[in-house]
Specification:
This protein has 149 residues and is α+β, with helices and mostly antiparallel strands. It is 45% helix and 9% strand. The chain has 6 helices and 4 strands; from the N terminus they run H-E-E-E-H-E-H-H-H-H. A hairpin with a 4-residue loop joins strand 1 and strand 2.
């Protein structure tokens, strides 16, 4: 006698398994393809969200952030899943580094220092330095020196 399940558990579904692997590896290639909603927190995220990977039983996948919002979840404040690809809010680090480089090229670091640059960007000097090193490989002072040379 064999026993069959009327509906297989979500973890046995190949689509669920593929999407769960994407969120576990924080794969940015899946951003914009689906949204991950976590029932234990009430939050929905992008697949690349840096937050801790939720348990599979707490995860529901939606095609859009609007669908997750309609289901009663709120947007993650770390990964901003409601942002649209191509807009500045989609990749905040890239946008911040691009704005910083324009200001560095205009001589803001030379005239006002790193604190002045950070104030114009609306972030702390430490955060601006951290983002520029991550995105461009050098801090604001080194970038200003390179542009002067």
């Amino acid at each position: 006698m064999t026993t069959t399940l009327a509906t297989p558990p979500a973890t046995m579904d190949p689509v669920f398994a593929e999407r769960y692997r994407a969120i576990a590896s924080r794969d940015r290639r899946f951003d914009g393809q689906f949204i991950t909603a976590v029932s234990s927190t009430g939050i929905y995220c992008r697949p690349s969200c840096p937050a801790r990977t939720p348990k599979p039983e707490n995860v529901t996948f939606y095609l859009t952030s609007a669908a997750a919002h309609e289901a009663g979840y709120r947007a993650c404040k770390r990964c901003l899943p409601e942002a649209v690809p191509g807009t500045p809010s989609w990749d905040l680090g890239h946008d911040l580094s691009a704005r910083a480089m324009r200001l560095v090229a205009d001589g803001v670091v030379d005239r006002e220092g790193v604190d002045g640059l950070a104030a114009r960007l609306g972030y702390s000097a430490r955060h601006v330095h951290r983002v520029l090193v991550a995105e461009l490989g050098a801090g604001p002072v080194a970038l200003a020196r390179a542009l002067r040379a």
